Every structure is written in C-alpha cells, then in structure tokens.
Amino acid sequence: MSSVSGTTVRELIAHRAALDPEAIYALSVDESDSALGRQISYGELARECRAVTALLRAQGVQAGDTVSLVMPNGLQTLLLLLGAMHGGMRANPVNLLSQPDQMRYVLEHSDCRLVCAAPEWEERVRGLLATIDRPIGLLVIDPNSAGWPAAENASPAGADAPGPGPDDVALLMYTSGTTGVPKGVMLTHGNLAANARAVSEEHGLGPSDRVLAVLPLYHINAFTVTMMAPIAHGGSVAMPAKFSAGRFWAQAAQSECTWINVVPTMVSYLIEGAAPPREQTARIRFCRSASAALPPEHHRTFERMFGIGIIETMGLTETAAPAFSNPPDATRRKLGSVGRASGCEARIVDNALTEVPDGTTGELVIRGPNVMLGYYKNDEATRASFTPDGWLRTGDLGHRDADGFFFVTGRIKELIIKGGENIAPREIDEALLKHPAVLEAAAVGLPDRHYGQEIGACIVLREGAECTEDQLRDFCVEALGRYKTPRHWRFVQDLPRGPSGKVQRLKLVPHFESADAA
Predict the structure, then answer these.
(1) 256 in the Ramachandran plot: left (φ > 0), alpha (ψ -120 to 50) or beta?
(2) 193: part of which helix (H) or strand (E)?
(3) CA–CA separation, 359 vs 348, rounded Å?
(4) To bridge 323 with a disulfide, which of 179, 315, 459, 476 should be the other Cys (CB 3.0-4.6 Å)?
(5) Homologous superfamily of 415-512 in CATH?
(6) Looking at 52-66, 244-258, 284-298, 310-324, which range is the least confident one?
(7) Rounded CA separation 89/81 (Å)
(8) What does the alpha-carbon distance between residue 511 and residue 334 come to, in Å, rounded to a whole number?
(9) Tens digit of each residue's pLDDT (9 = 90 or more) over 415-424
C-alpha cells in the first residue's frame, strides 16, 4: 500500500492530490443519474473542496460552524461533506429516514448555520426551519448535478486560509438510539484520519482498489469506510444513488469494483436473489460486512452462492465506525465473531469495570485514536459513556476468546432476563434463522409477572413461504430447549432498523401489547 500522510481531512486530500492528481477518486454508476459516467480525480477533489468552502463562506458559514445536509447519495453530496470538513466546518449529514420531529431536533440541536437540501427535500426542510427560533440558511443543491449555485461574495482565495487541526471537530453525526432523543457524536479530524488509515491497512487496500458505495453517506460506516478510507490509500469510490439488490452485481461489474461494503440487511436481500454470472463478481476480492451482527447462516449462504469471502467487522458511531475486523486471510477468520481490535484497544469488563478473563461475558469497552471527543452539548452523557480511565463503554455484551477475537451477543439494555437467567436475544435469532421459512427474526424481552420477562419473537418469512407459530415453537424447543423458546410470536413485514442496519429491538415491544403476559 502506498504511503499516506495527514492527520486532518484537508491534509489527507492535499497529500493524495499532490501524489497523483490524475488518479480517479469517485465516479457515478447509477443508470438513472444524469451525471452517469462523471468522474472526479484527486486533483479535482482538492479544487472542488476549495470551491465548496468558498460557497459555504458566501452563505455566512465560518470555520467551526455546523453545516447540515439533507441529501441522498450523489457526487455533489460527497463533495459537500468533504468540502465542509476541508474548510474547517463541521459536517452534519442528517438521516433521511428520521421522523419529522427527530429531524427538527437534529437541525435545532446541532446549531447548524446552513442546511444543504436536495430539491425533493426543500419544502419539508423549509417547514421544519420555520419552527426553529433562530435564523438558519437553506441552500438547495441537486446531489447529481455538476457545479455549484452561483453565490455572491464567494471568494476562492478565502478557501486557502489555515486549515483545521487534528483535534477540531470534523463530523457531527447523531445516533439513532432506541430510546430518548438522538445524541450528537463529535468526531475530530484526527478520529477520521486514524480510521481511514486503519481500514486501509486492515484490509490491505491500495490505489488499484475500488469500492461500491451503496450505503447512505449519513451512515457512519459509509462516511468513514467508503468515503474516507479510499483517500488514505489512494483508491476510489463507485457511487450509485442507493442500494438495489437487482442492480447490485451489474453495478459492481460495470464500475470494476474490487471490494464491496454492506450491512447484514443487504446480505439477506442479495442471497434472496439469483447468483450473477461469474464475470460480474470475478474482480471482487472480498465483501466487508459491518454495523450489525451477521447471522452465520447468512454468512455461509452468501459465500456459497457468490464465491466471495465475507470479512465481518464492527464499530460504532462513537468509534468513527470500524473498531473490530476479522483478518483478510479467510483461513484465520472466525464465523460469528466481529474480529479482533483494529486500530484501537478493546477489552471486556464486569459491572465494576474490571477486566474479566477470556471467555467471560461482560461489557465491551474501547480506547484509541478513533474514539469520539464526546456528545455535543451533553456533558452528562459523555461522562457516563467513559470509564474513569478513559475507555468508551459501548453498552454491548460479549466475550473475547483466547485468540483475541471478540464475540458480541447483544446490547445490555436489550438483554432478556427471564427468571433471573440472562438470555442473549441473538442466540434466539440465530436459531430461528436456521428454519427454512424464516428470512429475518428478532427476539425481545416482554414484561411478565411470574418470570420478570418473557420472550417474544418477530418473524419475517421468506417470500412465498408459510409457517405457523406452533411449527416455529417446536423448532425452537428442539434447538434451544423449552426455557429459551419464545412464548409470544408476531409475523411482520419488516424489522425496525437504525441507519446502521441494527435491529431496534425495543421498538418491537408495541407488537406484543395485546399479548397475554400473565
């Protein structure tokens, strides 16, 4: 892999533009995109970032101010995010799946000075901004256009002012917590640069590598892995407007991608489709799965169908995405494990925050250059998220084995405690996924006056499949025993997920409000 220099987004871009200005950084591959075939070189990236900085400054945005984006994927979306950070502003990509009250909260709480919105979002964003008691600018930009709106007082020279430092906040990204209001995670330039290098080194990526960027850029994984990491190793990004299971393999082949970056939900959709011709997958060296646990059954099926090895990884918004990864060598990977610590340190601790022996279940904690500065305007939550000696408390339950591989079994808040016994919901999910009629499954704890909690399970059936509660109950008794078999069942069309693809289990509880928990 070629050498990389820089501890800020601006320095990473400048280094790559100086090293190989004609090399391609990004290209559009969506058939419906008016910019189909447009390419951006590293030299052009540096110039476009200066143009974005000038445009934002003409709108009254200064270094240290927040710029919010309400935009789907597109090359202009990518350039706005990078350009804002390049100019020392804080980028705030807003989750397009947010409910209106959540989006309004983010726009107000972030103290943004300007919102950049796609044309189809203009009316909704204007309506939200009208309810906020402070002036916020609005700039409407087509994510697939080329060029920028004309702006008075735009001075490209101003874009060459001193850049941000590694400790300055580059990204303000709000979590999609299952309870309470979203929290604004502050990630610094140093956090993003460190993880861009860690991803590049962990996967052995170089200038000849190209990733298919199907995750939305308001997703921390897409932001750091598919947008930032290629700048560190000189690779490139092929960007469709959105994920399409039907066009996925053709897009990967058309754009000559060498790796793909997905979440488990996408894996489940892809294995429901047909295997593509071998020539469409021949260049792809590996598939990277992240952000949520990948069921082993889906893992095996994907590799068998497509002949592409999956590298399972894991990270949080608070760790600038990846913090764990399985090895590139397929013979050393462990099915069901998120891998070993990557670019940081990790350990398992008990309730007293004391490290526990390998094989013992506890809370996963992380420390390293990728860990967030804190939560924006929420000192109490920041303090609660760190141990006294500076380890980030993830809230994830799991264990480490003797080889240093970590296994995550669930969230502490989602742990089912039935009659005093701790039951990890993932154990139930994975048992159910072995049933041939089940596409997706999620277990959740429900109040019960006898046991404290009982188990409920929401099931998404495969298309055309039929199955009854009794059949699933009998299947679980055989696989898990009667005690861990769900008592309550619901068949649903889909499971609620956050932008990272994780199932939001606590949102399943309303499905069971009519359940008899006596």
Answers:
(1) left
(2) helix 189-202
(3) 10
(4) 315
(5) ANL, C-terminal domain (3.30.300.30)
(6) 284-298
(7) 9
(8) 35
(9) 888 877 778 8
